[in-house]
Design goal:
The complex is a heterodimer.
Chain A (H helix, E strand, L loop, with lengths): L1 H24 L7 H20 L5 H22 L5 H8 L5 H13 L2 H27 L14
Helix pairs in contact in A: 1-2, 1-4, 2-3, 2-4, 3-4, 3-6, 5-6
Chain B lengths: L2 H20 L4 H15 L2 E8 L2 E7 L5 E7 L7 H15 L5 H12 L6 H18 L6 H21 L4 H22 L5 H9 L5 H12 L3 H31 L5
Antiparallel strand pairs in B: 1-2, 2-3
Classes of the chains: A mainly alpha, B mainly alpha.
Chain lengths: ~150, ~260
Amino acid sequence: MMPAWTHYLAHFVVVVIATISFGITFQVPRRHYLAAGLTGAVGWMVYIFGVELFGMSPAIATLAATLPLTACARFFSINHKAPVTIFLLPGIFPLVPGAGIYYTAYYFLQGKQELFASKGGETFKVALALALGIALVCSVPLPSRHDPRNDRL
Amino acid sequence: MAEGTFDRAVELVMDAGQTLLENGGEVFRVQQTMEIMAASLGVQDFHVYVLTNGIFASAHRPGQDASSLLRHVPTVSTHLGRVEAVNELSRELAAGKLDMAQAEQRLQAARALPRVGPRVETLACIAGSAGFTYLFGGTLADMPVAAVAGLLESLVCQYFGRHGINRMFTDIAAAFCCTVWAIAVQAVVPAVSANAAIIGALMVLTPGVALTMGVRDILNGDYLSGSIRLLDALFIAGSIAGGVVLGWILARGLGVAV
């Protein structure tokens, strides 16, 4: 079991670093780096567990990952009193179907129509899953104590 | 409310809105922040409509006709630090902790928040590319290839950005460069997988921001702005795909890849 354990630990460390890298290019303030990195890690770990351990399709795993990710971003947003965008934008990046875009273009060029269509469809589904996940979690109202106008972080 | 105060207040509110919008704030946030600030500053009959690239507002000048205000915000470059600073400013203004002069000062400070240097941005690009190559199943040998691809990408983006070349062509060129580079390395060192390295490097270019913001705009009922952003996401994805295809065509033409 040791190799699997180190495999996921390595993934965790790398995804935190990669997410923070994106945060830097979006000029996220330094005090939010760790929270943004963790948000990205939550999403990616759920995704990779879903795909590798539970045999989910990429689209379903993306949906499953976006829910805790967005919830995590909202949590940090309230906790740090900062706009949710600061955590959501870098955090969502690992799940954006970059590989899907690439393989769609690749199979298109190779003339492999069937693979092209299936990759293209999958990329679109992943993007939809991402959108649906964000939509679901962002729409849940907060149990608010104060002026609800300030809650739409 | 005196004439001069009105002008200053309206100017402050418009500047704050523009700062939010051009640094990647969501449409509803811009709209809401401007309304809260106008109310806190006592501007009467303030109405504002925000789109992805413009702000339209009108306010009632005391004792006179309504005046209309317009801002065009053609380019957005994400700076979440500034978005946060303006957000904080409006919160404190609404809580009555700031007067007009202090608020103006805070907005100046928010607008002047520095970007991290181009070197740091390039480093982040390199780290991101190498990291994602690993996450997407690349080997340790693929990572340095992706890191160099990330460096190329970052240089292309910064050079094109300085010369005001449009976003679409920039994405095509950046995707093209990293594709050609990775295929070239694979041709020399067969142990390297070009696919893994290219995917890692492409992650930096993917339209994650446009997609996320588009969804959030639509959720908040800003259908027009949301559609603009989603269309943007689609075009970015298409540009990346175009760059990749061009890269492979070149490689095939030179007989390096099949």
